[in-house]
Write a structure and sequence with these properties.
This protein is of the alpha/beta class. Helices cover about 35% and strands about 20% of the residues. Helix 7 runs parallel beside helix 15. The two termini are about 30 Å apart.
């Protein structure tokens, strides 16, 4: 998720609040039957509410406009947890038509609050097994990613120190004051990392484990952008910020991103992945209940799992496509990490325990 180029675009989008990503579908003479120009039921605009890391190629969104007649308007709303909180506060009178970015760590919260209208998107038969988590089709899976500790290769080479490989390694004294993570109360990667530690250490052992992490100097910051781009010494942004933490909670797909935007392009990624610290994340999109443009929202959900959009996902959001017929770009296969056995926690267990787990974590890691 994350390069100097993308940071600049994200910061601009956040400053503007709303960004139109695709051009209008033409003049009124080009309007499809039943469409209008207002934002009511006949609107030619469909608003996608999302977290700050959403990105898509302009040409791909223009293709959606050409095929459907709808223009996508993007409303970015902070980190995934913050964006979801805003939708819960405005449920019934949503700020847009479709919400993207709720993942398996927060899905039950969105469903329990009744945010979405059920819709079975076209092409669901092509999504990877196990990614659908709602039999009522209130949400549509869009991408998957593995939340993992990343490490700065240069730092560990210079120190002649092996990077950590597992959760157990992170509490060893040789890694004291090296790791930065995100706040599990409001950050999707932060919560994913917490759940990974629960899967690894068990419900009876994770609190003691976090006490050890705390004693070993783990640093907690608000969100991913700050952790990766300001605190992590291995990222392009971190180097500019003179960051001093060579370990960060990020994604298994982060190393290819560092290669993609490096100039000149290195022969190998400057960062690596501790594959024994990974938690599998799936992101979903849903038609917001009370959406003014339901027809446009449904068309957008269909498009989000089309092969066109899915093959655009890796190099724009740096996560994996969810449909089985989408091809990964070469830079992913060459520089990315394949996580064979990511940690997982059953959705029903997350739903039943998430709040108390986060509260217990907060009392240890933050207070």
């Amino acid at each position: 998720m994350n390069t100097t180029k993308k940071y600049a675009a994200t910061a601009l989008a956040a400053a503007l609040g709303v960004t139109v990503l695709a051009g209008c579908g033409g003049s009124d003479d080009d309007t499809p039957a039943g469409s209008g120009t207002s934002k009511g039921s006949g609107s030619k605009t469909v608003t996608l509410v999302t977290h700050d890391s959403f990105n898509a190629s302009e040409d791909v969104l223009k293709q959606f406009t050409e095929e459907s007649g709808y223009t996508v308007e993007l409303l970015k709303s902070g980190d995934a947890g913050a964006a979801l909180n805003q939708e819960i506060l405005t449920k019934g009178s949503p700020r847009g038509d479709v919400f993207f970015g709720v993942d398996n760590t927060l899905l039950s919260r969105a469903l329990d609050n009744g945010l979405f209208t059920a819709y079975e998107a076209k092409g669901l038969d092509r999504v990877a097994e196990g990614t659908e988590q709602d039999e009522e089709h209130r949400v549509t899976p869009v991408d998957t990613g593995d939340i993992c500790v990343n490490y700065d290769k240069k730092y560990f080479a210079e120190k002649k120190l092996d990077p950590p490989r597992t959760f157990e390694d992170l509490v060893k004294p040789e890694y004291k004051n090296l790791l930065v993570t995100e706040n599990a109360a409001n950050s999707s990667p932060g919560l994913g990392f917490l759940l990974g530690t629960i899967a690894s250490q068990g419900e009876d052992g994770y609190q003691d484990y976090w006490k050890k992490l705390k004693a070993n100097g783990i640093k907690v910051v608000d969100g991913w952008e700050q952790a990766y781009n300001e605190e992590f010494s291995g990222s392009a942004g971190g180097k500019k910020a003179k960051a001093d933490r060579p370990l960060v909670v990020s994604y298994a797909s982060s190393p290819p991103v560092e290669v993609l935007y490096a100039d000149p392009r290195p022969e190998e990624a400057p960062t690596g992945v501790s594959t024994g610290t990974c938690f599998r994340q799936t992101e979903y999109a849903g038609l917001l209940k009370g959406a003014k443009n339901e027809a446009g929202g449904k068309a957008l959900l269909d498009f989000l799992i089309s092969r066109t959009f899915q093959e655009d996902v890796p190099l724009n959001m740096f996560v994996n496509p969810v449909v089985t017929d989408a091809k990964l770009p070469e830079i992913f296969t060459e520089f990315g990490e394949i996580v064979e056995k990511p940690a997982t926690v059953a959705p029903e267990k997350i739903a039943a325990n998430r709040e108390q787990w986060v509260q217990a974590w907060h009392s240890i890691a933050v207070k």
